[in-house]
Amino acid sequence: MPQRQSKKEGSLRSNWLAPKLVQLVERFLQLVERFLRLGKRLARYGLDGFVLALIASIVVAYLWPRPGVYRGIVDLQDITRIGIALIFFFYGLRLNPAQLRTGLANWRLHLVVQAVTFIVFPALVLLAKIVVRGTWDAPLWVGTFFLAALPTTISSSVVLVSMGRGNVPAAIFNASVSSLLGILLTPLWMGILLAGTNGGFSPAQAILQLSLQVVLPVFVGMTLHKRFGILVIRHPRPFRLFDQGVILLIVYISFAESFFNKMFRDYSSWHVLLLCVAMLALFFVVYGLTTLLAKILKFNTPDTITTVFCGSQKSLVHGTAMSRVLFPGYTATAVLLMPLMIYHTLQLIVTSAIVGKRSLPAPEDNQQL
């Protein structure tokens, strides 16, 4: 009898604790949301708060690089590893397995989106490399191919599809599947690219590390979706702010290492300008190809919108997270991330303009992850 009574008391205590914990966290998130109105004000004037923060983190890395290269008691590298795991845990917490099952039926759309993301993108960069010629060891070229091999965005593609009145369940499915496929395909693509270099890159080791740092937190989050998922769904902005904070820290560390080791001495503003033009051209070529494929396959309007927005986006979250695993100890990580950061900024500007042209509300700032 005493054992049964203690079990009952334990279950009652746990049933009481979970709702209380949810309430406390929800109150905290409500307080955080009150301090996030600056981004909306910036968006009214065409300024994106996250893009400005990215620029600011680069400036800070240039002025004060030493904290980014310090390896001691408070190691920023360790903080970013924990932060990356939490980003994908919260992402898994947000995923609804029922929604994923709903989006599974439209297999033709999924094949097109994933093919564009992981085959067409890298093929275009390889083709451009053959046309332009040069050595694959150049960090900007490696960074551009790294961008091409990344999965689609986690949240912005779904947001854009929703505002464009596209197939939202299919967008959620593609964003989720792309994230998981990227754990396998991105290291494999980079392994093929770097096979002839002296870096000793191991795709198998990278896949294992990414599985522990990304896939495991996602699945843990999904198992807790029923109990705590409502927090992420009701208060997305504070969690998005956390995601962006981790990304900014990774960007700061990467650029601090590169500035400290003088890795930018061989690059000028002319290189940056050419890179901007190349990234803009890449976006429009992929955007046009996905639109053409959707027309050839006779997709309806919602499916076409989903194909275009999911197929043309690249994830800054995955890019910054994977860069720490795929290129450990590489002092020019910031140079590798430059194509991704420029592409991220341009896709933010262009997709906002496209959404505006459709007479729809512009995407909320900082959605482009």
Short description:
By secondary structure, the chain is mainly alpha-helical.
Provide the CATH architecture: Up-down Bundle
Helix content: over 70%
Q: Mind summarizing the main beta sheet?
A: none
What is the residue-averaged pLDDT? 80
Structure overview:
The protein has a single domain, classed as Na+/H+ antiporter like fold (Up-down Bundle). It contains 17 helices and no strands. The protein has helices spanning 2-34, 38-44, 49-63, 66-69, 76-94, 97-103, 107-132, 139-148, 156-163, 168-193, 203-223, 225-234, 236-260, 269-296, 301-311, 316-326, 333-357. Helix 7 (107-132) runs parallel beside helix 10 (168-193) and helix 7 crosses helix 15 (301-311). Residues 359-368 have low confidence and may be disordered.
Topology:
Layout: H1 2-34, H2 38-44, H3 49-63, H4 66-69, H5 76-94, H6 97-103, H7 107-132, H8 139-148, H9 156-163, H10 168-193, H11 203-223, H12 225-234, H13 236-260, H14 269-296, H15 301-311, H16 316-326, H17 333-357
Helix pairs in contact: 3-13, 5-11, 5-12, 5-13, 6-10, 7-8, 7-10, 7-14, 7-15, 8-17, 9-10, 9-15, 10-11, 10-15, 13-16, 13-17, 14-15, 14-17, 16-17
Keywords:
single chain; 369 residues; mainly alpha; Na+/H+ antiporter like fold; 17 helices; disordered C terminus
